[in-house]
Write a structure and sequence with these properties.
A hairpin with a 5-residue loop joins β12 and β13 (124-128). The chain is mostly beta strands. The protein has a 4-stranded antiparallel β-sheet with strand order 1-2-3-5, with no helix packed on it. Strands 4-30-29-28 form a 4-stranded antiparallel β-sheet, with no helix packed on it. The termini are far apart. Helices cover 2% and strands 42% of the residues. It is elongated and about 85 Å long. The chain contains 1 helix and 36 strands. It has one helix at 157-164; strands spanning 6-13, 18-23, 26-31, 38-40, 52-54, 71-74, 80-83, 87-91, 96-100, 103-104, 109-110, 113-118, 124-128, 131-136, 141-145, 171-172, 178-180, 187-191, 196-200, 215-220, 226-230, 233-239, 247-255, 258-263, 269-273, 277-280, 287-290, 301-307, 314-318, 321-325, 339-347, 357-358, 376-383, 394-396, 406-409, 413-416.
Length: 423
């Protein structure tokens, strides 16, 4: 790979099973033949790490418009479009590029594209540093749709930049509306028919608003729900066009920054975070985090993720290169290790000093009985397994007190207070 830093979502696998990777040093093309949890890193000593490498050449108008690549998509006809300094079209047969300038008469300048989305009619919607643009490949027509919040000074170009930066993925719903994560401005719905914008931001104290205005990723599920990755967690937006606001929010289904989202064929969600790769079951709300202990090269995931249409493998960008795997290859360990008490202490309500008393040799005892006044217990426990012990998950349930299991995560201690006699 030409550079280990893969620019956000500059990642795509085409219908011919080629992997296209955008970096700060151009575009790489690689024909796939991968395996479980493999990482691809830049090797400066190897000239054969990728089959083809495309670069900007100052004296070649048929090269990339810039070596900094923001986004790569393939349209319905199999054409490749690249967001760089300009909107670049690659002729796969000749290997040459056509560079289209995204010129806005509204501000009288060419603007840099960051994201590309093809609609059902084959037209392209372009997210730029100055807002949303429409591009017709057949006529090369560009239309700029800047968003001006009410009360904004439209004569100030800085205001346009502040309110209109589109740096991350935007999506289209089943009604043809675009949902756009303007930078640090929450999410905005755009209706291409009436050209109307509706912006939805975080509102303190309102549980039906998004968790944060810092939206890092949008993803439309197979069920038509909008998933929102934010700086503090994953939100789920159930679209209800007839309502005001036109959605119901389920906030922070997963906590912590979420930079990339994708759904596999089994309906499970895979999330790239700053603490590793998260598998999330939206039905049970169960999560499983994979990190370097599971073979990952890095736990810091960026915004780039894609699924190969032929192999079903997923590709994620990290700060150490590219990671790929098949979701079905990552199976939970079915072995449930034996749990033992490593320490048990009790507090005596008649003891005014408040100091705990330890039960000797608890590891070798089958049961312990306490009088009613010794009704606060401190327990430490462990799983008898040496396989990735830091990832063991624990839960407890007290008969007569808890109907369901109480999840402790990786926590291996528990304090039970004021227990009723007979528990």
């Amino acid at each position: 790979m030409s550079n280990n830093t893969i620019n956000y979502t500059a990642l795509y696998t085409d219908r011919e099973n080629n992997l296209w990777i955008g970096t700060r040093l151009g575009v790489n093309k690689y024909h796939q033949g991968f395996q479980h949890f493999k990482a691809y890193e830049h090797d400066p000593e190897s000239s054969n790490s990728l089959s083809q490498h495309y670069l900007h050449q100052a004296n070649n108008p048929s090269s990339l418009s810039s070596n900094t690549i923001h986004h790569i998509v393939e349209d319905k006809k199999g054409n490749l479009w690249i967001a760089s300094k300009k909107l670049d079209y690659l002729d796969k047969k000749t290997g040459s590029f056509i560079n289209y300038s995204i010129f806005s008469p509204t501000i009288n300048r060419s603007i840099r594209p960051f994201r590309i989305l093809e609609d059902e009619s084959g037209q392209l919607w372009i997210g730029t540093e100055y807002g949303l643009c429409f591009f017709d490949p057949s006529t090369e027509k560009v239309v700029h749709y800047p968003y001006w919040p009410e009360g904004t000074d439209t004569s100030n170009l800085q205001n346009l930049w502040n309110e209109n930066r589109i740096l991350d993925d935007f999506v289209m719903d089943s009604d043809g509306n675009l949902w756009i994560p303007y930078w640090m401005r929450g999410i905005t719905r755009f209706n291409p028919t009436n050209k109307k914008f509706d912006r939805f931001r975080h509102i303190s104290g309102d549980p039906n608003s998004i968790s944060s205005d810092y939206v890092t990723q949008l993803y439309m599920t197979k069920q038509g729900h909008l998933l929102i990755g934010t700086s503090i967690g994953l939100d789920k937006m159930i679209l209800k066009p007839e309502q005001n606001p036109p959605f119901v929010i389920q906030r922070q289904l997963v906590s912590g920054p979420v930079g990339s989202i994708i759904e596999d064929d089994n309906g499970l969600l895979w999330l790239g975070s700053l603490k590793g790769l998260i598998r999330f079951n939206p039905k049970t709300l169960e999560t499983r985090t994979y990190d370097t202990n599971d073979g990952l090269q890095s736990t810091e995931f960026g915004g780039g993720v894609f699924e190969s249409p032929k192999s079903g493998k997923l590709f994620f960008c990290t700060n150490s290169g590219l990671v790929t795997f098949h979701p079905d290859s990552l199976r939970a360990n079915p072995y449930v290790p034996t749990i033992v008490f490593s320490s048990l202490s009790f507090y005596d309500s008649k003891n005014k000093s408040g100091t705990p008393t330890s039960v000797d040799n608890i590891v070798y005892k089958d049961e312990v009985t306490f009088p009613y006044y010794q009704n606060t217990l401190a327990i430490e426990f462990a799983a008898l397994s040496y396989n990735k012990t830091a990832k063991n998950q624990y839960a407890y349930r007290i008969d007569g007190l808890n109907e369901n299991w109480v999840q402790l995560g990786t926590k291996r201690d528990l304090t039970l207070t004021n227990l009723n006699p007979g528990i």
